[in-house]
Design a protein that fits this description.
Blueprint (H helix, E strand, L loop, with lengths): L2 E5 L5 H16 L3 H16 L2 H4 L3 E3 L11 H9 L3 E7 L5 E5 L6 E4 L7 E4 L14 E4 L3 E2 L5 E2 L5 H11 L5 E5 L6 E3 L11 E4 L2 E4 L1
Parallel strand pairs: 1-11, 2-3, 2-7, 7-10, 10-12
Antiparallel strand pairs: 3-4, 5-6, 8-9, 12-13
Helix pairs in contact: 2-4
Length: 207
């Protein structure tokens, strides 16, 4: 269920940390069946987006833990012949990219202080590979009515968004979330780049 009337204070990093902990605690209470069911619905909804239907290249990611699942969507895109890029975390927290060629092309990579990430086995394409994407799927914990996304705080996707903005790339920015993670207002900064759409199990909302 969405909370369209729920506001969160504009504020500092401490506010964002508290919000992240709150959203993550709700995710932690989800069952595996909840996550699997949401993954199937998210794939169906995301594939209905016109931007996704005409995309030749999609920058995505492999969901971990109780994140909104991307597995079904990755398989559907791959089956359609879409070129799917997956991120590789670099030592400085920037992202390189590799091509997804099916589940066997991904390996779990333990990262200190993080969940085990699932990254592509293929050779790295370079951080600028994301500039060729028609759609960029962004992980997140919440989004508000302005399209402001609350990330996990690592800064990796802030660099991706800055790279896209600097290149004046026209990629559609889409975040995948659970229904209750769409709220009225989140803390944000004037330079934050909003997403164009959020996909949840119950539907899609555009900004």
């Amino acid at each position: 269920m969405r909370h369209p009337g729920k506001k969160f204070p504009e504020g500092c990093d401490a506010d964002k940390r508290a919000l992240r902990q709150g959203f993550l605690s709700v995710r932690d209470r989800l069952t595996e069946d909840d996550v699997r069911g949401a993954s199937r619905l998210l794939a169906r909804r995301a594939l209905e987006l016109p931007e996704m239907a005409r995309a030749r290249t999609v920058a995505a990611y492999v969901s971990v833990g109780h994140e909104p699942g991307t597995g079904d969507l990755l398989e559907a895109l791959h089956a359609r012949g879409v070129r799917v890029l997956l991120p590789v975390l670099l030592p400085d927290n920037d992202l390189d990219w590799g091509v997804y060629e099916g589940p066997e092309s991904v390996v779990g990579v333990p990262r200190p202080g993080r969940l085990t990430l699932h990254e592509p086995l293929g050779g790295p394409l370079g951080p600028d590979a994301v500039l060729g994407a028609d759609v960029v799927l962004l992980p997140g914990l919440a989004v508000d009515a302005r399209g402001t996304r609350l990330g996990r705080g690592g800064g990796s996707y802030d660099r991706v968004l800055a790279r896209l903005a600097a290149a004046d790339a026209a990629a559609a920015l889409v975040v995948l979330l659970y229904d209750a993670e769409v709220v009225e207002r989140l803390p944000g900064l004037p330079h934050d780049r909003p997403v164009q759409a959020v996909v949840t199990p119950s539907g899609t909302r555009r900004f």
